[in-house]
Amino acid sequence: MAVQRSSWEGADRMYIDNPEWPAPAANPENLAFFTAASQGKLLYGRCHACAQAHYYPRRICPNCFSAEVEWVEAGGHGHIYSYTVLNGDAGERVLAFIELDEGVRMLSNIVDARAQSLRIGAPVRVAFGRAGAVRVPVFVLDDTEAKA
Ligand SMILES: [Zn+2]
After folding, report:
1. pLDDT by residue (tens digit) across 87-145?
2. 54 alpha carbon to ligand 1 midpoint, in Å?
3. C-alpha 53 – ligand 1 centre gap (Å)
4. How far away, in angstroms, is 146 Cα from ligand 1 center?
5. What pLDDT is recorded for position 13?
6. What CATH architecture applies to the domain 4-147?
7. How many angstroms does the Cα of residue 27 sit away from the middle of ligand 1?
8. What is the pLDDT of residue 49?
9. Ion ligand 1 nearby residues (CB, 5 A)
């Protein structure tokens, strides 16, 4: 999918505007997540009872059902765990499981990348796409690692 890179904030945060993306359903449980995303922060959950990280963040740990969870800001870097390329009327879209450096996997989209340049294990970093009134985390290939 061709998207427009709209701006960079700081050294590491990218915002992408694509008015075609639908807004996710808002509810009290995900409000903090989307509020953080609008500020360029990707949150995941960590449980104090079992010490495991999880995504998406929620009020109850999905591993041990403890309510002793906290929301933690991720560094925004990870790699492609798996992906698929969808071809439709709107063009090519890439749906992917991203494994963050913090060890959690999340389903997201990879934008602004040709399918031929994707591979499992490729480094990615978070960007924030506009979906309706909120921003949602998506990923772009992290070419800064190759240049380093
Ligand atoms: Zn737990």
Report:
1. 888 788 899 999 999 999 999 999 988 888 899 999 999 999 888 878 899 999 997 65
2. 9
3. 8
4. 36
5. 67
6. Beta Barrel (2.40)
7. 23
8. 97
9. 47, 49-50, 61, 63-64, 66
Predicted local distance difference test score (pLDDT) of residue 133: 78
In this prediction, residue 2 carries a pLDDT of: 45
Phi-psi region of 40 (alpha: psi -120 to 50; beta: other; left: phi over 0): left
pLDDT at 95: 94
Separation of alpha carbons 16 and 11, rounded Å: 15
Exposure of 59 by Cβ count < 10 A (0-12 exposed, 13-18 middle, 19+ buried)? exposed
Domain ranges of the chain: 4-147
Q: What is the DSSP letter of 22?
A: P
- The type of residue at 135 is R
For residue 100, the CA-to-ligand 1 centroid distance in Å is: 19
- Ligand 1 centre to CA of 28 (Å) is 21
